[in-house]
Amino acid sequence: MLDINKSRLEDLSESTKTTVLKWRNQHHIRSMMFNQNKITVREHEQWFENLKNNQNQIVKVFYYDEIPMGVVTFTKIKNTLLYEWGFYIGNIEAPKGLGTLLGVCALDYYFTSMNKHKLVGEVLAYNQKSIAFHKKLGFQQEGILRQHYSVNEKLHDVHLFGILKEEWFEIRPYFNK
């Protein structure tokens, strides 16, 4: 059984940035992203440098048992107080269920350390695992943008999710079991 006490989030660093690029370029991760292009080393380096002065994006590496396993990002939505999140487990040796721990750590961080009131997520309709994941974590589906995003010249719906701070703290004890 996985132990929440063995998980933590750390800032993306020089020591983990190459691993994150490798994970992000894996086909099974790229194919679920809005940007499905393979990221070059140069693009990644530029992104990493820009993060240092970017107050609107927070990138954390998720660790389990001292091993980097995944990534979570929080990106401020322009002209709002809200952030949108993105996440993935990149380590192919990650034990089953680790995504849930990543989600719990991320939501705890967002609502406690960042002290925000609402988090939103957007999911491509064909990413059924992510849709189920959001619902499992207590997100409410707030809408569907029909035929909204083009992937390989095919239009896809985008599911919109949101969770309020009080909703998270209501469901949070369930994940201590």
From TrEMBL:
Residues of the N-acetyltransferase domain: 7-157
Organism this protein belongs to: Kurthia gibsonii
PANTHER family from the UniProt entry: GNAT-FAMILY ACETYLTRANSFERASE, SPERMIDINE N(1)-ACETYLTRANSFERASE
Pfam families, sorted: Acetyltransf_4
Keywords: Acyltransferase, Transferase
InterPro entries: Acyl_CoA_acyltransferase, GNAT_dom, PseH
Protein name, entry field: UDP-4-amino-4, 6-dideoxy-N-acetyl-beta-L-altrosamine N-acetyltransferase
Recorded GO MF terms: acyltransferase activity
Gene it is expressed from: pseH
Organism domain of life: Bacteria
Catalytic activity, EC: 2.3.1.202
